[in-house]
Design brief:
alpha/beta, 8-stranded mixed beta sheet, 5-stranded mixed beta sheet, Archaeosine Trna-guanine Transglycosylase, Chain: A, domain 4, Carbamate kinase, 14 helices, 2 domains
Length: about 375
């Protein structure tokens, strides 16, 4: 299970609390991480770094006390902190003659299929050139998404791992493992070495909240694990300050918690599943049963529509599935409950008479 000798694409996520020291970038820590990453490249692997810390770095530069909660101030901190953060990575990689590229993302980039694919192509090119992509959330232009879209980049790291079909996601944090109960409240809590399935008990037991400038916590890490596991990716959660942590993980040492994937979904199915839904279609029990038998969703099974969205949007089907709809919300409202012959008459011969085809429907419990 911990044999990573054949793992080529590796995403390494570094949290704010792990990266920071006295309100600024811990230069020595960055250099140590880069040293270990450069060794991965020497071995013929293709690593990607997902880094937090821009807001915290900016807050430290401005000498702001406590957590920064005001949205405009967080954006300003990100604008100040991001170049400081990237400068440290560039200096550290330059010592090994390795180029690195900055990639800043918002949730919209990953939600839109076109920009999602463009990003995938850009990442592939960077990796083929021997460069290390260094990714972060674009907090400076984000609005309500800061801290909620990606959860201190835990979710972002998993989405990136899914997008590039990574073999391994390493989450380096100030949390050293997943425990059977909250170790902050229960001194007898025991670390869980291997997890084969994210159960309801694990999800309910995951706490929330991060450190001063961080927004992550065990809950966001569990969400990240689920996303990466859809791509058939193994995940290791470990303490980022443990000595030689990346090298030890790659050597198969029993460190942190290993999460095993359940099964791999197609790239399109993962995009649908991980996308933010813009509306909801309520369908009847017969339609749900038909979808589970790999049938298309027909307007005759639609009972109601919530939200306003165009054709091609990702929507919820009850609370059971997500789908790319071939009909917009206004069309659906007028055609709900009608049969296919009525649909063709209303839309014309050039339009499909289905709401969604099986290839565009993914059940949340898959």
């Amino acid at each position: 299970m911990r044999n990573f000798s054949q793992s080529k694409r590796i995403v390494i996520k570094i949290g704010t609390a792990t990266l920071s020291r006295d309100g600024g970038v811990d230069t020595d820590y960055v250099r140590e991480v880069v040293r270990q990453v450069s060794e991965l490249i020497r071995q013929g692997r293709r690593p990607v770094i997902v880094t937090s810390g821009a807001i915290g770095m900016g807050a430290g530069q401005l000498r702001l006390p406590g957590p920064v909660k005001d949205m405009k101030l967080r954006q300003a901190c990100a604008a100040i902190g991001q170049p400081l953060l990237m400068a440290e990575y560039r200096r550290a990689f330059a010592e090994y003659g390795i180029p690195c590229g900055q990639v800043l993302l918002t949730a919209e980039v990953l939600n839109q299929r076109k920009t999602y694919l463009n990003l995938r192509n850009a990442m592939e090119t960077l990796l083929n050139l021997g460069a290390v992509p260094v990714l972060n959330e674009n907090d400076c232009v984000s609005t309500a998404e800061i801290g909620s879209a990606f959860g201190d980049n835990d979710r972002l790291s998993a989405l990136v791992a899914s997008k590039i079909d990574a073999d391994l996601l390493i989450i380096l944090s100030d949390i050293d493992a997943l425990y059977d109960k909250d170790p902050r409240k229960h001194p007898d809590a025991k670390p869980i070495k291997v997890v084969f399935e994210i159960t309801r008990e694990i999800q309910q037991g995951a706490g929330s909240g991060g450190s001063t400038h961080a927004t992550g916590g065990m809950r966001t890490k569990i969400q990240a694990v689920k996303i990466a596991s859809y791509a058939g990716c193994r995940i290791v959660l470990a303490h980022g300050r443990a000595a030689n942590v990346i090298e030890r993980i790659m050597a198969g040492e029993d460190i942190g918690t290993l999460f095993m994937p359940k099964r791999k979904l197609s790239n399109r199915a993962r995009w649908i599943l991980n996308n933010a839904s813009v509306g909801k279609i309520t369908i009847d029990a017969g339609a749900i049963e038909a979808l589970r038998n790999h049938k298309s969703l027909l307007p005759s099974g639609v009972k109601g529509v919530q939200g306003k969205f165009p054709a091609g949007s990702v929507v919820l089907l009850n609370e059971a599935a997500k789908a790319v709809t071939h009909l917009g919300s206004e069309e659906l409202k007028s055609l709900a409950g009608k049969h296919s012959r009525e649909i063709r008459q209303a839309l014309g011969p050039d339009r499909r008479d289905v709401v969604a085809i099986p290839e565009d429907i993914v059940f949340l419990d898959y």
